[in-house]
Write a structure and sequence with these properties.
- The complex is a heterodimer of chains A (317) and B (274).
- Chain A has 317 residues and is α/β, with parallel strands linked by helices.
- Chain A folds into two domains: 4-217, 3-Layer(aba) Sandwich (Rossmann fold); 221-279, 2-Layer Sandwich (Alpha-Beta Plaits).
- Chain A contains twelve helices and 14 strands.
- A six-stranded mixed beta sheet of chain A has the order 6-7-8-3-9-10, sandwiched between helices.
- In chain A, helix 4 packs antiparallel against helix 5.
- The two termini of chain A are 36 Å apart.
- Chain B is mostly helical.
- Mean pLDDT of chain B is 92; it is low at 1-8.
- Chain B has one domain (14-268).
- Classes of the chains: A alpha/beta (317), B mainly alpha (274).
- Chain A binds chain B through residues 1, 3, 28, 43, 47, 50-54, 63-65, 70, 72-73, 75-80, 82, 84-91, 95-96, 99-106, 139, 142-143, 149, 152, and chain B through 1, 3-5, 7, 9-15, 17-19, 21-22, 25-26, 111, 114-126, 269-272, 274.
Chain lengths: 317, 274
């Protein structure tokens, strides 16, 4: 049985965009990435799942239970880290955890203490005195300390330094090893690619696609910019597998590739390389790949922009 | 994966007890700050009573009758009457009702604005439990503040040898408590519609002020006495002097609780503001 199952889940607010007809399933033991730019409807989806928002139409089930009727039973078995975690600023982390432990019927703060030690979180300072990153650590601890079956993380690493982001992601991996299900909402493609099994892509309130990370990576590409000591031979790079949108400007060649990088590096190495740059596409570019290349969301509003060569890229390797 | 189909299988502690405990801890300084300042003022009034005692009747006679009516002053010949006119006709009920309104606004919409409610309601807490906890915490904290006011007032009376019956003070405090609970209920009812704490405090404080004006109009305008029935101030009365009107006391408190229940139902049905 899926851990999360939504069926035509729709939430409309007055003027703001909510979510529209979101149907997806998250299986037990998987790390499911929920990828979308800010304002796409990620937090709205999470808040509907938690019964903080009531859906306009459609339904959702978690652990096979209805999110509206059985919300308390569901929440007893999950942990949630809101995107911008905050609680009464005068309370210390320990006081908040004690309150939540009493609510949840958890005896002692043993696991919370262990997590605090790992994340170097200060449980004895008022939350209002902590930096955003340090507050977020307390947020993670409160989401995890009762060993929930399902962990919901809404943009968990925003505001954290890279080392802590690393530690967060390692922890998500460990939770998966322990058989937990993780629902990770994020706008960071790299983050999602690294830890997730499958990814749901949401844009403008609609679920555009659900893919395995392997498939997402296959559809993804890199921007390549190589500056050589002399003028490059365009044909030489254009012939490499997966290369498209090639342009030469003086001694610099730029292109996109969804193929292996090894032939690119070897082709470049035949010349004197002055500079080489590799970058991931932006999230927006990935979305355009789906909008233009998939056809499943035709008419959903690709805003008439040209999509580079997303569609061609799909079959380029 | 096991599926809990019965609520009884849900692992929960005691959310209501936990929330009440935390709410009272959060308000542990209120008796000192609110109770201390109101109590000090009340004690001061009692302490200066002996030095004014002889002039007070003349003073009362010199006031226009409408002013005396407005403040419910019959005369000022006893300490209860003086304390009632100076403190319990206006300052204490206004302050304690405002304290109760603020307590409710902090507990629910205040947390809604900061995102704290998302944290609490990610745990297995029913919204009704949040509301019940806010009611209990507000009722107990308000009683705590009033207890300090009463204690300081009686201590001052004892110190300067003023004959202020403890029963009279207690009656004044009890009616203030029920009055505060009523306006806490108004605040909760408003919280059933909105998650903005300033708006909720504004609505409830506005009701407090509007009802005061209604009560005043009813007292001062001939034939308008009936409008006082719409005002909680009428039922608050003047318990310090007249003794506690048990029906009014129970009525105010019961309507307050009812408004909490109604506000709670509305709150459970609405979205939590994010």
């Amino acid at each position: 049985m899926p851990v999360i199952e939504t069926d035509g889940l729709t939430k409309r607010y007055g003027s703001a965009r909510g979510i529209e007809d979101v149907s997806m399933t998250v299986e037990a033991g998987e790390v499911f990435g929920f990828l979308g730019p800010n304002g796409a409807g990620k937090t709205t989806t999470v808040r509907v799942l938690l019964d903080l928002l009531h859906p306009t139409s459609g339904s959702a089930r978690i652990f096979g239970l209805d999110t509206r009727r059985d919300s308390v039973a569901i929440r007893a078995r999950l942990g949630n880290l809101p995107g911008d975690f905050a609680y009464d600023p005068q309370l210390t982390g320990r006081e908040l955890l004690t309150l939540l432990a009493r609510i949840r019927g958890v005896r002692g703060l043993g696991r919370a203490e262990a997590l605090a030690e790992r994340f170097r979180a200060d449980l004895d300072r008022p939350l209002g005195h902590l930096s955003r990153g340090n507050r977020q650590k307390i947020g993670l601890i409160q989401a995890l300390f009762h060993e929930p079956e399902l962990l919901i993380l809404d943009e968990p690493t925003s505001g954290l330094d890279p080392l802590m982001q690393e530690e967060f992601m390692a922890l998500v991996g460990e939770e998966r090893e322990r058989g937990r299900t993780v629902f990770l909402s994020s706008h960071d493609l790299d983050e999602v690619e690294r830890v997730c099994d499958r990814v749901g892509i949401i844009r403008e309130g609609r679920l555009v696609a659900v893919e395995s990370v392997a498939e997402l990576t296959r559809k993804s590409y890199r921007h390549v910019r190589i500056e050589l000591a002399g003028p490059p031979d365009a044909a030489e790079f254009a012939a490499l597998p997966g290369v498209r949108d090639l342009a030469v400007d003086g001694r610099t060649v730029t292109f996109k590739t969804s193929g292996p990088l090894d032939p690119v590096v070897k082709a470049a190495a035949r010349h004197t390389v002055v500079d080489i740059e590799l970058s991931h596409p932006t999230l927006e570019e990935v979305f355009l790949t789906y909008y233009e290349g998939d056809g499943r969301t035709a008419g959903a509003g690709a805003e008439g922009r040209t999509a580079g060569a997303g569609a061609e890229g799909d079959g380029a390797r | 994966m096991s599926v809990a189909t019965e609520t009884s299988a849900v692992r929960r502690g005691s959310p209501l007890a936990a929330l009440v405990r935390r709410g009272l801890l959060d308000r542990r300084r209120s008796p000192l700050t609110w109770g201390g300042s109101l109590g000090a003022l009340s004690a001061l009034i009692v302490a200066i009573y002996p030095s004014l005692e002889d002039q007070l009747d003349e003073l009362a006679d010199s006031y226009p009758q409408s002013l005396l009516d407005a403040f419910g002053i019959q005369d000022l010949s006893t300490p209860e009457q003086y304390l009632s006119a100076e403190m319990f006709s206006l300052i204490v009920p206004f302050a304690i009702a405002f304290y109760a309104i603020r307590s409710v606004a902090r507990a629910i919409p205040g947390r809604e604005e900061t995102g704290g409610l998302d944290v609490l309601l990610s745990a297995p807490v029913r919204r009704g439990e949040l509301v019940a906890a806010a009611l209990v915490v507000t009722a107990v904290a308000t009683a705590g503040v009033l207890a300090v006011v009463g204690a300081l007032t009686q201590l001052a009376a004892l110190a300067v040898g003023v004959d202020l019956p403890a029963g009279a003070t207690l009656a004044g405090l009890a009616s203030s408590w029920a009055f505060a609970l009523f306006f806490a209920g108004v605040a909760m009812l408003a919280a059933g519609f909105s998650g903005r704490s300033a708006a909720i405090s504004g609505v409830a404080a506005g009701a407090l002020l509007t009802m005061y004006v209604l009560d005043l109009v009813g007292k001062l305008v001939d034939g308008a006495d009936w409008v006082r029935r719409l005002s909680a101030w009428r039922y608050y009365g003047n318990a310090l002097v007249d003794g506690l009107d048990w029906a009014a006391f129970a009525g105010l408190a019961a309507v307050g609780v009812l408004l909490f229940a109604l506000g709670g139902r509305l709150f459970a049905r609405r979205d939590v503001a994010g």
